[in-house]
């Protein structure tokens, strides 16, 4: 095992359970102290203060140059990755290859700039073969993430360089730089934000440009600090400066520059190979925990970085995420999976907490095990897997459903739902008020309550059967030992009043999942008030927000269904979801 200096390790003290460095890396003590020192220095401003603070830019560029194996003439500081990618997109002509599965910071610049035409690659890992198949005579560049933000897949930069030949290779290195030992020098453009794995804090970053990039790209977005004789204020617009300096828009905050320099110097202290090896050990350990808990690792396992993505049985990721959050685990919850990303400073206590959370999830009966409850069949008559020991609870309740319906008399319907079986949650039903069967879905009302976590019992509310008859309904949620809702028992009764046309139904009783999806989507589209064919991005994003709150995405394949309705890709739906779920 490569040794990491204790002087590096003592710099970090993120909370126990923090496993989300692919989203944000809590800064090192030294970074916080340096930022504070520079702010305090600026507060005591004197004749030389600004000049002294601006020297932090030189220090940061020097650290970047050492780690990338270039000179400082090829380095420019930036406040974030997006700024650099937009500059490049506005300076490139021809055709650029880019996968729609990339993080939006890598797709928006090329679409918005309008200078280079975009040739989409398959929405999958960007492999040398995929690029080779996508090349045309007009291709001038490839834009790719060094590490995929969803799966941790590491692009083979050296092989991509060989395939591209003399074309430009534009690399977003934010998910790997500093913790992945890559041949960064093969990139013509390397853009990195410092707020994730570098742990430099927000508003820190840099761009490295090769001689080929400097020759071919036009620095359209170049400010006064990117001009020759930048300090000469003679009323003239000066020519663009030579080298990467010509890509400067304005001075980066010297506080941010100092923070970036400090973070990069810490990386140099520990050494990238040692950091990479330690993170790989943590990822291996977490992957073993997931598998032992019955989960499935869905992230890259061959060419991978510090990201681990997984699922647990057929459970919606939102439910798994809620369990992790209650256990003090910070992770990224996506519609399709859970993403965890440890760092060198991740302690055994954090991994133990993660292990306990997944063990609790599976042992409590929430995760899928291969046990069959007698009488529980899905819509096509086949047996379905269930859980143990929660299975025992439902096995005992199923006969009670029929006994209860008999006791309540004619005009009564009793329904038992198993929330872990979403969307086909009906495991027992007695009565035919709503015309549903075992294996059918829950109502839109209950689905929304489950999604929002508002699983309070409902008593005596009025709704309408599919044929328009008024019915009285009550719902009691069943909970495990931790108080987590695992199912619900619903009683519907016919008060004997004639059928009417409800002004606005409280809930609908779909007979199958397709009908439930259609009801939810049609209602969301109507509520936005714009026909789909006339919708703009803001309207479609609002539809996704409404449907997320309504619980649509607890249904398998619902993303693909909605993408077809709205005429967008599934990745666009995921982008809208991520935007909606960002903490305020």
Annotation keywords:
single chain; 584 residues; alpha+beta; seven-stranded mixed sheet; five-stranded antiparallel sheet; 18 helices; 15% strand
List the helices and strands and how they pair.
Elements: H1 6-9, H2 29-43, H3 49-68, E1 75-77, H4 81-90, E2 95-98, H5 108-113, E3 117-120, H6 128-134, E4 139-145, H7 157-164, E5 168-172, E6 189-193, E7 205-209, H8 211-216, H9 254-270, H10 272-292, E8 295-297, E9 308-312, H11 317-326, E10 332-333, E11 338-340, H12 348-363, E12 369-371, H13 390-408, E13 412-418, E14 426-430, H14 444-452, E15 458-464, E16 470-479, E17 485-493, H15 513-528, H16 537-550, H17 558-566, H18 570-581
Helix pairs in contact: 2-9, 3-9, 6-7, 10-12, 11-12, 15-16, 16-18, 17-18
What is shown here, in short?
With 584 residues, the protein is an alpha+beta fold. The chain is built from 18 helices and 17 strands. β10 and β11 (338-340) form a beta hairpin.
Protein architecture, described:
With about 575 residues, the protein is an alpha+beta fold. Helices cover about 40% and strands about 15% of the residues. It contains 18 helices and 17 strands. It has helices at about 5-10, 30-45, 50-70, 80-90, 110-115, 130-135, 155-165, 210-215, 255-270, 270-290, 315-325, 350-365, 390-410, 445-450, 515-530, 535-550, 560-565, 570-580, and strands at about 75, 95-100, 115-120, 140-145, 170, 190-195, 205-210, 295, 310, 330-335, 340, 370, 410-420, 425-430, 460-465, 470-480, 485-495. A seven-stranded mixed beta sheet has the order 1-7-6-5-4-2-3, sandwiched between helices. Strands 14-13-17-16-15 form a five-stranded antiparallel beta sheet, with helices on one face. A four-stranded antiparallel beta sheet has the order 8-9-11-10. Strand 4 (about 140-145), helix 7 and strand 5 form a beta-alpha-beta unit. Helix 16 (about 535-550) crosses helix 18 (about 570-580).
């Amino acid at each position: 095992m490569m040794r990491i200096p204790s002087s590096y390790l003592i710099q970090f003290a993120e909370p126990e359970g923090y496993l989300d460095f692919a989203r944000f890396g809590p800064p090192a003590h030294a970074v916080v102290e340096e930022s504070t020192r520079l702010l305090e220095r600026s507060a005591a401003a004197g004749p030389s203060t600004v000049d002294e603070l601006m020297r932090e830019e030189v220090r940061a560029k020097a650290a970047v140059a050492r780690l990338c194996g270039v000179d400082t003439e090829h380095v420019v500081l930036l406040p974030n990755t997006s700024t650099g990618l937009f500059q490049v997109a506005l300076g490139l002509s021809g055709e650029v290859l880019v996968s729609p599965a990339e993080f939006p910071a890598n797709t928006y610049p090329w679409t918005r700039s309008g200078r280079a035409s975009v040739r989409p690659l398959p929405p999958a890992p960007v492999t040398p073969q995929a690029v080779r198949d996508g090349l045309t005579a007009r291709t001038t560049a490839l834009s790719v993430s060094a590490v995929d933000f969803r799966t941790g897949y590491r692009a083979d930069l050296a092989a991509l360089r060989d395939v591209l030949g003399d074309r430009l290779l534009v690399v977003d290195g934010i998910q790997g730089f500093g913790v992945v030992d890559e041949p960064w020098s093969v990139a013509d453009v390397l853009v990195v934000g410092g707020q994730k794995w570098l742990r430099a804090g927000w508003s820190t970053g840099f761009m490295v440009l090769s001689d080929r990039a400097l020759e071919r790209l036009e620095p359209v977005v170049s400010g006064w600090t990117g001009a020759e004789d930048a300090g000469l204020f003679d009323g003239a617009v000066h020519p663009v400066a030579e080298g990467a300096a010509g890509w400067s828009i304005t001075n980066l905050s010297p506080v941010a520059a100092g923070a970036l320099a400090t973070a990069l110097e810490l990386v140099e202290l520990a050494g990238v190979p040692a950091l990479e090896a330690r993170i790989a050990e943590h990822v291996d350990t977490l992957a073993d925990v997931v598998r032992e808990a019955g989960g499935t690792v869905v992230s890259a396992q061959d060419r991978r970085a510090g990201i681990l993505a997984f699922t647990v049985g057929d459970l919606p990721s939102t439910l798994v995420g809620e369990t992790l959050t209650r256990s003090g685990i910070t992770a990224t919850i996506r519609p399709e999976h859970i993403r965890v990303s440890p760092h060198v400073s991740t302690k055994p206590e954090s991994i133990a907490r993660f292990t306990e959370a997944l063990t609790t999830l599976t042992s409590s009966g929430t995760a899928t095990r291969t046990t069959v409850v007698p009488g529980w069949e899905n819509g096509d008559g086949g047996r379905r897997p269930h859980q143990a020991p929660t299975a025992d609870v439902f096995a005992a309740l199923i006969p009670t459903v029929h006994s209860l319906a008999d006791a309540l008399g004619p005009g009564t319907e009793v329904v038992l739902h198993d929330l872990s079986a979403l969307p086909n949650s009906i495991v027992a039903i007695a009565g035919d008020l709503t015309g549903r069967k075992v294996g059918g879905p829950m109502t839109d009302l209950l689905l929304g309550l489950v999604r929002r976590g508002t699983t309070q019992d409902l008593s005596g509310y009025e709704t309408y059967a599919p044929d328009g008859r008024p019915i009285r309904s009550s719902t009691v949620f069943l909970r495990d030992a931790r108080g987590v809702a695992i199912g619900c028992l619903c009683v519907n009764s016919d008060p004997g009043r004639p059928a009417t046309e409800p002004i606005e139904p409280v809930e609908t009783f779909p007979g199958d999942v397709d009908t439930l999806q259609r009801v939810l989507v049609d209602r969301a589209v109507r509520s936005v008030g714009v026909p789909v064919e006339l919708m703009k991005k803001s309207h479609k994003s609002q539809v996704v927000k409404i449907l997320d709150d309504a619980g649509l995405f607890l249904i398998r394949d619902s993303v693909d269904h909605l993408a077809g309705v709205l005429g967008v890709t599934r990745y666009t739906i995921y982008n809208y979801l991520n935007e909606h779920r960002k903490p305020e």
